[in-house]
Amino acid sequence: MHALLRAAGLGFLPLLLLSLAQDTPEAQRMKTDCNKTVPGTIYEYGALTLLGEEYIQFKQFAGKHVLFVNVATY
């Protein structure tokens, strides 16, 4: 099996990283709402692209892993 994966150029590193990314019951308990006064989920919102030319609805990312980075400054 290992030789087959190496021949495909995949190796075991991606599989190892994937196994670490799975939610555990402990991680589920640690999740909290950031702002309880905001209704709904992130998928009900969207944002403009950096140039403001296109509105991207977040619902297109439902079921996928998404990382939001807050780059706002004062």
Structure description:
It contains 3 helices and 2 strands, in the order αααββ. The protein has a domain at about 30-74. The mean pLDDT is about 75. The longest helix is centred in the first third of the chain and has 8 residues, at about 15-20. The protein is an alpha+beta fold and about 70 residues long. It has a two-stranded antiparallel ribbon. Helices cover about 25% and strands about 10% of the residues.
Structural class: alpha+beta
Radius of gyration: 18 Å
Number of strands: 2
* Spatial shape: extended
Percent strand? 5-15%
Instruction: List unreliable stretches of 5+ residues.
Output: none
As a percent range, the share of helical residues equals 25-40%
Compressed to H and E, one letter per element, the order equals HHHEE
N- to C-terminal distance: 53 Å
Task: Count helical runs.
Answer: 3
Largest sheet: 2 strands, antiparallel
Protein name: Glutathione peroxidase 3
Signal peptide: 1-21
Organism: Cavia porcellus (Guinea pig)
Keywords: Signal
Give a brief description:
This is Glutathione peroxidase 3. Keywords: Signal. The protein has 74 residues and is α+β, with helices and mostly antiparallel strands.
Provide the descriptors you would attach to this structure in a database record.
alpha+beta; two-stranded antiparallel sheet
Write the layout of secondary structure elements.
Blueprint: H1 2-7, H2 13-20, H3 25-30, E1 46-48, E2 55-57
Antiparallel strand pairs: 1-2
